[in-house]
Amino acid sequence: MAGKAKKKTTSKIKKYRKPLNLNIGMIIFSVIFLYVVVCVIIYFQTSHIVRYEVQEGSLSTNNLYRGVVLRDETVIRTSSTGYVNYCAREGERVAKNDLVYVVDETGRLSQELEALSQGENTLSKKSLAEFRSEIVAFTHDFDSSNYNAVYDFKYSLKNTVLKLANENMLKSIDSLSASGINAINYSYAPKTGLVAYWTDGYENLQPQDVTMEIFDNEKKDYKKKQNISNTLLEAGDPVYKLSTDENWSIVIPIDAERGAKLQEEGYIKVRFLKNQYESWGQAKLLVNGDGKSYLQLSFTNSMITFLSDRFLDVELIVEDETGLKIPLSSIVQKEFFLIPEEFVIPGGNNGGDSIVRQCYLENGTISSEIVEIEVYNFDNETKEYYLDSSMLNPGDILYKLDSQETYTVSRRATLVGVYNMNKGYADFKQINILYQNDEYAIVKPNTKYGLSVYDYIVLNAESVRDNQLTN
To answer: pLDDT of 252-273, one tens digit each?
Structure first.
């Protein structure tokens, strides 16, 4: 068998599998990383409870207003055409039949006065003192934002000069009359009052006629026509006006709610920003034709001080409400059951209040049980307690202590409050709001069922539900 070929043998090669080598460190890291990712996702998908510490405070309200001045004003018109020369100083009180101005129909009077002014003139100490007091008053009250006051000062100074020149003017009139020129017309005051030499068309404006259009026009089209001596006027033109009554008022636009509160106070202390003068004004709320609310502040003195003003800036000096200051976002409303006083037992086993409620035993017999409850408010007028609606059900029957008299739970009412966080959960506390603005409310402190200073409340009441854990 030597010639036989040898049989060829082959071997099958198998791939070697490496044993699974787990790295415990990588496993732990992966688990922690996955946990962190899940926590981050949950954090951004859930609303967060932010707490707010209750502090004492007050609300700073804007008490600065701009108002329109209303007074009794009678416009006097000239009866003849000519050059008007005033004999009374603006702001001076004239009696009935006092000489106020003269009308020079020819213009000769102004020529005589001009000739006199070219000579040597001296002022008495009294006249100089009058000039000095007027200049000092202007420099003290001047505000660069109200440059129109410069023109008022200019005209007032001119009228003061004219008053001091009255004697010369009257001498000139006598001189013209002696020379046979009688074209001078005298005008006397028809009644007693304060003289003003300007008009603006608002002399007959009444409080109920004030609208926002008047305040808008002040910035755009308001014109104050000032009359000065030696001005040519036509017959029928306004020449001056008399203010005959010391009573006057300011009308300011105001929020209806705030205006109603100020009206309830009766009299409001007012500071006039023009000269820092303070006075008490009687407050009256108006709702005028444009549907807006206005506050009329009436005064009985100092009208002469503001005789040259139609618009004034004033500050209302009122006592700010003080108490517990909380944000409006914390305030929520909650519904409660109303329970008569005689069906609530004060001071239970744990010092809290309780009620006696009807219940059924396992055998179906009627019995009663004492239930600890939390009182959220007590109405002194109706003598009713506010109890949490989660602890009672409509139709529950309550027993009066030591009596068979019963009360069926049904009536509900709503309280305004916040969620207190002191106990680690959202606990409703009733509040009594004294005043509020757009951001905060001032709450009455130290109420029996309310808040105290340094309590922690939920900043956003919408982020929690009743009795939710807050830690």
So the answer is: 999 998 899 899 989 999 999 8
